[in-house]
Amino acid sequence: MPGRCTRRAFCHGVSLVALGFLLLPPAANAYIGPGAGFAVLSSSFAVPLAYLLALIALLTGPLRLLARLRRERKAFQNARARRVVVLGFDGMDPQLAARWMRQGKLPHLARLARTGTFRPLATTHPPICPVAWSTFLTGVNPGKHNIYDILGRDRHTYLPFLSSARVLGPRRWLRLGWRALPIGGREIKALRKSKPFWHHLGEAGIFSSILRVPATFPPEPFSGVLLSGMAVPDLRGSQGTFSLFSSREGTGGRLEGGVLLPLTLEDGVWCGEFPGPENPFPLEDKRDLTLPLRVRPDAVRRRAEVEIDGQRVSLRQGELSGWILLRFRLGFRIYAHGTCRMYLRSVRPDIELYVSAVQIDPRRPALPISHPLDYSIYLGKLYGPFSTLGLAEDTWALQQGALDDAAFLEQCYQTHAEREQMFFDALDKTRRGACICVFDITDRIQHMFWRQMEPHHPAAPEGEPFDASIIETLYQRMDALVGRVLDRAGADALVLVISDHGFKAFRRCFNLNAWLHREGYLSLVSGSTVSEPWFRHVDWQRTRAYGMGLNGIYLNVAGRERHGIVQPGEEADALRAELREKLAGIMDSVAGQAAIRELFDTREIYEGPYLENAPDLVVGYAPGYGAAWESVNGSVQGEVFMDNTRTWSGDHCIHPRDVPGVLFANRAILGERHSLADVAPTLLQLFGISVPRYMDGKPWTVRMEPTPTPTGPVAAAAPFAGD
Fold first, then answer.
1. In the predicted model, is pLDDT for residue 716 greater than 90?
2. Helical H runs in 495-590?
3. Which residues pair with residue 434 across a beta bridge?
4. Torsion angle of alpha carbons 646, 650, 653, 657, nearest 10°?
5. Cβ-count burial of 242 within 10 angstroms (0-12 exposed, 13-18 middle, 19+ buried)?
6. Alpha carbons 340 and 387: distance in angstroms, whole number
7. FRET pair for 83, CA 20 to 30 Å: which of 28, 306, 616, 660?
8. Degrees (nearest 5) of the Cα angle 302, 303, 304?
9. Could you say which DSSP state residue 658 is in?
10. How many Å apart are CA 301 and CA 316, to the nearest integer?
11. Residue 232 above 90 pLDDT?
């Protein structure tokens, strides 16, 4: 009864808080993005709809409560577990965890290793976040959930799109003088297929709280609450576009992941234009909405006052601001609401001001980022604004120098603190059922600071302080979180700590498309020696193979691709075999080692109804290697091999055997080999639900009786003897 009452109070509390917040909405809301958002005519009803849903929830509460009680009487009859808590630590590496446990630096994870389980967790082909987490939540291989990389490819245009969700804009516009009116709405559709395991739980009457799991945008209805993770866009419709304002002469232009914008001096004040979402009713000469921005620097005190949208924000140099609320006016009492953070990088000799991507305001969600629709409003009302962007930690800004190391770490830990708050709220209120949260910070910091662990890494800082403890400190903070969760969850709960993959250094780049061009598989149009991003100068009439995304190779197959020239059947099979033979074990003469361990034919590693969308080959890079960014973004230029001098210095997009994830549990899990695909069927079986036959994972044998704490050393439980 306590769990049932708490959960009931949780759901009703969400509706009540949201209803109270919505009774006096400041204005209608809209979501617009440049080719990637909803038109205002279809999205401005998001908050009123949340109000309506909350009102309906209150009015129908008694009837729904009776129906729920009836279902719950049967829900746990065959269950071996009443409560399961899953902590997803994206990218936590088992070798690093084992090393620091042996050194006594991770006491809570060591406790799990002694009393329960610590094992490597087999990941996916390839070991990329949206691929791996999609397998986690569905229990199936990519051939059944349709996610093969972070990017998918359009067979007609050869252009990429985000693999887990795609937004389609209106196809026609009606011109009304100097305005344009979209005809038809914009549609956002989930590309990840198959059913998450919490949908099966909900159908059986078992409640789940799901926070920030990748590949859950757009949110799907089920019996529980969910806040979407990776793939949630910013207010511009991108996956995170920062702005860097500068008073330096000649400033302006595009940056990787952002825009460089000028500040001009007017009457002693530095002025600029902050870009917002696309105008759904564009003028002929202006499509983006903007807000005027003014900066009043104080070079002596190393401060500045920033004025934007009627607000004055005082910043110290080197300080990251709190959340700033912004409104972009679309019409009479119609606004696009967003939030951002600012960072004053310098005030002299030049002013440099970083402004984060404008994120969707969770308290005024312009499009659904949660289920139910008012769940994000509830969390925003409870804790204030929080990060909603799928990739909240601004790795591009660090790479481009808009943020320094300290500011990026502060941004990461502020985002992490927000997620901890929301997770513990869900944990306290989900007394029965499943409570699952993915923490991204482990992935982001390892990507950006592996260079600090290796003094000889090509991206290691020169002339700057070297701090090899950054990733170690991160693991210690995650260990402390595990300790708090174990205390809060209680001895009766099953607690799992998992990661989707591990991590390795990324020292050398392999430029796949440059190699394909050199070897004659990829051709450029006559007169071109290089291609700009997204295959701008590729001659598809003479191209047989091309690389897209982080690990995929596609054949230009006739009848499949628009300009395909490779005949399906024997010719395509021969080309696959030829590429596998040439690329597997290809030597990097500078480093004196193989860059690619293995190439996988996707017909051999995947099976399912969506295999036609898979790449033809998946590259299994050797540790230390990864795809060159020039190849990932569809350029055909540069050397085949090169040093990786980017701050993105650690990676996991290599052979899956080299980057397994972790599996910790406070119960003994038997068996020798465990896979990420096994989590979904295991949880279903623990809650007494039959595992669907289509699932590829196999349920683990879990001893639900708590194990007494032994006094043996941690190393005895660790699966790795060395690092």
1. no
2. 512-518, 570-583
3. 84, 208
4. 150
5. buried
6. 9
7. 660
8. 140
9. G
10. 8
11. yes
Segments of 534-603 assigned E as strands: 545-548, 552-555, 587-588, 593-594, 596-601
Q: Return the percent helix, strand and coil in the chain, to nearest 5.
A: 30, 30, 45
Q: Tokens in use for 528? A: 């071109």
Amino acid identity, residue 99? R
Furthest-apart CA atoms within the chain: distance in Å: 80
Listed in sequence order, the DSSP H helices in 490-589 are 512-518, 570-583
Please report the pLDDT score of residue 33 as a whole number: 27
Residue 240 and residue 243: Cα distance in Å, rounded?
10
| Average pLDDT for 411-422 | 98
Tell me the whole-structure pTM to 2 decimals: 0.89
Specify whether the CB–CB gap between 85 and 494 falls below 8 A: yes
Determine contact, residues 514/631, Cβ cutoff 8 Å.
yes
**CB–CB of 9/346 below 8 Å?**
no
CA-wise closest residue to 188 among 368, 376, 372, 377: 368
Q: With beta carbons less than 8 A apart as the criterion, state whether 630 and 513 touch.
A: yes
Q: What separation in angstroms does the CA of 170 have from each of 237, 346, 497? A: 14, 42, 43
- Pairing type for strands 504-510 and 624-627 reads parallel
What domains sit in the chain, N to C, each tagged with a CATH number? 1-75+233-377 (no CATH), 81-146+192-231+400-503+659-723 (3.40.720.10), 507-647 (no CATH)
Determine which helix (DSSP H) or strand (DSSP E) holds 174, and give its type and residue range.
Answer: strand 172-176
Burial 88-113 (b: 16+ CB within 10 A, else e): bbbbbbbbbbbbbbbeebbebbbbbb
Contacts of 268 (CB under 8 A, 6+ apart): none
For the stretch 523-534, pLDDT in tens is 999 999 999 999
Cβ neighbours of residue 266 under 8 Å, at least 6 residues apart? none
Tell me the pLDDT tens digit for each residue of 436-485: 999 999 999 999 999 999 989 999 988 777 888 999 999 999 999 999 99
Give the residue-averaged pLDDT of 373-394.
95
Determine the average pLDDT of the residues in 24-48. 37
Half-sphere exposure of 11 (CA within 13 A, CB side): 25
DSSP character at residue 561: B
SS3 at position 290: strand
661 touches 128 (CB < 8 A): no
DSSP 345-370: EE-SSS-EEEE---EEPTTS-SS--E
Q: Do residues 592 and 599 make contact, with C-beta atoms less than 8 angstroms apart?
A: no
Tokens of 642: 């090169």
pLDDT digits (tens, 9 = 90+) for 44-102: 455 666 666 667 766 776 776 666 666 666 788 889 999 999 999 999 999 999 999 99
Find residue 437's DSSP bridge partners: 87, 211
Q: Which two tokens stand for residue 635?
A: 């350029």
243-253 pLDDT, tens per residue? 999 999 878 88
